[in-house]
Structure formats: C-alpha cells, structure tokens
Amino acid sequence: MQAMTSSSKTIGPPARLATQADLETAITFLVERDVMLAPLAGDRPALRRRPDGFPGLAAIIVAQQVSTASATAILSRLIDRFPVLSPETIRAAPDTLLREAGLSAAKIRTIRATAEACLSGSLPLDRLGSLPSEEADELLTSVSGIGPWTAEVYRLFCLGDADALPAGDLALQEAARSLYDLPSRPGRSDFTALAERWRPLRGAAAHLLWSHYRRLKGRAGIIANPTDERSRQRSRRR
C-alpha cells in the first residue's frame, strides 16, 4: 500500500482510527488497494468508537449475540443502575440488578469474570493499546466468556486499531458475500483470507462493510457469530 505524497509531507495509512478524518484517509487507501470497495466509499460511514477500558469492554460484552437495538436498550438500563460502570461496581452488584438490566446468566458470568480479571491485574486494559494485537487478543480471550469477536471489536472500537477485524461477525461476512458475489456466506477462515488484501486497514474495511450491510438489510449490522463466543466457552469447560 503506497503512501500518499504532497509537496510538504508523505502521508501513510493510519495505524489508529481515532477520528473521522483517520477513517476517511484509511478508506482512500483501501479503494486504491481494492477497487471492489469503491462503490461503498461514496457514502462514507461514521467512525464507530467506544471508550476504552472497562466501560467500553462491558458494552461490547452486552452486544454479544444480540441485535444493535437490544444491546443499546440493555446497556442503557445497565448504566441507569450503575452510572459509574467499573470493575468495583460490578463486583459489588447483586445478580438481581444485573438481571433487571437485561443481562443473561451467561453475560453476568462474563462481565463478572472481566471485572475480576481487571481487579486482579490479569487483564491490564490500560496497557492493551501498546501491545501487539496477538498479545492483546490473548489477554482478552483468557477471560471466560470473551472470545475472538469480543476481543477484535474491543481493539477496533475502543483502541482504534485500524487493522482489527472481527472476522466472525455475520454482518461482515454477509456484506462480503454480497459485494464479491460469492455463492455463499464465507466463514471466519475464508473471510479472514479474503480480507488479507485490506491489511493494514481491515478495521476500516469493516466500517465500509457494516455500512453496506445496513443498506442491504435496512438495519444496523454488528452481529457476533454465536459459535465464535460459545465455542470458546465450551473449550474452557473441557
């Protein structure tokens, strides 16, 4: 991927998607790399960001395996009950309040495990942004109930990693099927292989594909692959 040049400086692809301008720059590079993305680039998607740290990760856990509308409603109820969403408040919270917010038993276990990992220091959320992506993913997925999708979405939305790709996301896979006229929706491994052409901007490509999915289906798309998280949980129980 070649850098854009001007008379005063050379501009390379952004490593972080911290601002809308970063996403715009990344999309410009992507279209040069893969012309199939050009039809999607006319209507530039808004940058998706969440706060880093525990509040952002908790919001992504809430979004596992549910629609965007459901996740928004549950998160709103959770924040109503816990205005300061922190590991300490989750540790002290009774299950009844978490259930009233709409969290399932599995998500209560996951958010509690995440809180304990943060408090024990085994999940140093404040350092993840400075670590290689593989190491950050390993730390995140070491927590019971957090699988690859959650880890990858956290790096993309909360850390702004321009190359983070939630490859198990069904909406991304379906958008890719439509865009590339594939005979069937690619699975995680096939979609990961297809996405190699977008490195190091796979996270920016995900923004374009989510926007494409929304136009296709008439609804916002960020859908975790249920097997992505559940298989992770099953492997830990063996």
Describe this structure in words.
The protein is mostly helical. A two-stranded antiparallel ribbon has the order 1-2. α3 packs across α9. The radius of gyration is 18 Å and the shape is globular. The termini are far apart.
Q: What is the gist of this entry?
A:
The chain has 238 residues and is mainly α.
Per-chain topology:
Elements (H helix, E strand, L loop, with lengths): L3 E2 L4 E2 L8 H14 L4 H4 L12 H10 L4 H14 L5 H6 L2 H7 L3 H16 L12 H9 L6 H11 L11 H10 L8 H7 L7 H16 L8 H12 L1
Antiparallel strand pairs: 1-2
Helix pairs in contact: 3-7, 3-9, 4-6, 8-9, 10-12
- How would you classify the helix and strand content by structural class? mainly alpha
**Net shape:** globular
- Lateral arrangement of strands in the main beta sheet: 1-2
* SS element count, helices: 13
Strand content bin:
under 5%
Which value, in Å, is the CA radius of gyration? Answer: 18 Å
What characterizes the major β-sheet? 2 strands, antiparallel
Mean pLDDT: 90
The first-to-last residue Cα distance is 43 Å
Q: Level of helix content?
A: 55-70%
Count of β-strands: 2
Topology pattern, helix = H, strand = E: EEHHHHHHHHHHHHH
Low-confidence stretches: 4-8, 230-238
